[in-house]
Amino acid sequence: MEGFLPIAYFQNQFIPFADAKMSVATHALHYGTGAFGGLRGILDGQNPQKIYLFRLDRHCQRLSQSAKFLHFELPPDKIAQTLIDFVKKNQPTQSFYHSTFCVYVGVGIAPRLHNVEKDFLVYGLVMGDYLSPEGISCRISSWARQEDRSFPLRGKISAAYITSSLAKTEAVESGFDEAILLNSQGKVCEATGMNIFLVRNGQLISPSFDQDILEGINRDSVLTIAQDLGIPTVERPIDKSELYIADEVFLCGTAAKIAPVKKIENYHLPLERPITESLRQILIATLENREPRYQHWVTTVECE
Question: Which CATH number fits domain 7-126: 1.10.3230.20, 1.10.10.10, 3.30.470.10, 3.30.70.660?
Answer without folding.
Answer: 3.30.470.10
